């Protein structure tokens, strides 16, 4: 079981991700935007982070860049979840420090497989 932080501005997607990840045995906390995500990551330690790409206040790449500046998150797996398929956006995700990329909509089993592979 891992402690996972989900950062997404969509309440329904946060809830869905929380249910899928909790049902697969993980401890999940949610943040509604990148700023809240940074605050939560500073207060607690998570073994993995899932982040949306397009969010208010901080975009996914901006959030990941800030997260990677925290010493305890330099090597933490970060999965970007997005509807974006543009190669430039994927590159931006990679440069910011994302460990992986999953395009929405995604299959719950694909999400679990990706999360588990990044955690191992």
From TrEMBL:
Q: What is the lineage of its organism?
A: Bacteria, Pseudomonadati, Pseudomonadota, Gammaproteobacteria, Thiotrichales
The cross-references to Gene3D superfamilies, in alphabetical order and at most eight, read: 3.40.50.2300
Q: Does the keyword Chloroplast apply?
A: no
Which protein, by its recorded name, is this? Chemotaxis regulator
This protein's UniProt keywords: Phosphoprotein
**Signal peptide as annotated in the record:** none
Ranges annotated as spanning the membrane: none
Which GO BP terms apply?
phosphorelay signal transduction system
The UniProt entry, under Pfam families, shows: Response_reg
Query: Is Transcription regulation among the key words of this record?
Result: no
Q: Which organism is it from?
A: Methylophaga nitratireducenticrescens
InterPro entries, from UniProt? Bact_response_regulator (IPR050595), CheY-like_superfamily (IPR011006), Sig_transdc_resp-reg_receiver (IPR001789)
On the tree of life, the source organism's domain of life is: Bacteria
């Amino acid at each position: 079981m891992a402690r996972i932080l989900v950062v997404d501005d969509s309440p329904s997607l946060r809830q869905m991700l929380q249910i899928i990840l909790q049902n697969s045995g993980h401890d999940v906390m949610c943040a509604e935007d990148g700023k809240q995500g940074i605050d939560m990551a500073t207060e607690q330690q998570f073994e993995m982070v899932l982040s949306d790409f397009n969010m208010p206040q901080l975009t996914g790449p901006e959030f990941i860049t800030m997260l990677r500046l925290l010493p305890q998150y330099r090597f933490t797996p970060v999965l970007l979840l997005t509807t974006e398929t543009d190669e430039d956006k994927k590159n931006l995700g990679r440069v910011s420090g994302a460990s992986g990329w999953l395009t929405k909509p995604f299959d719950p089993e694909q999400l679990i497989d990706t999360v588990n592979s990044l955690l191992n």
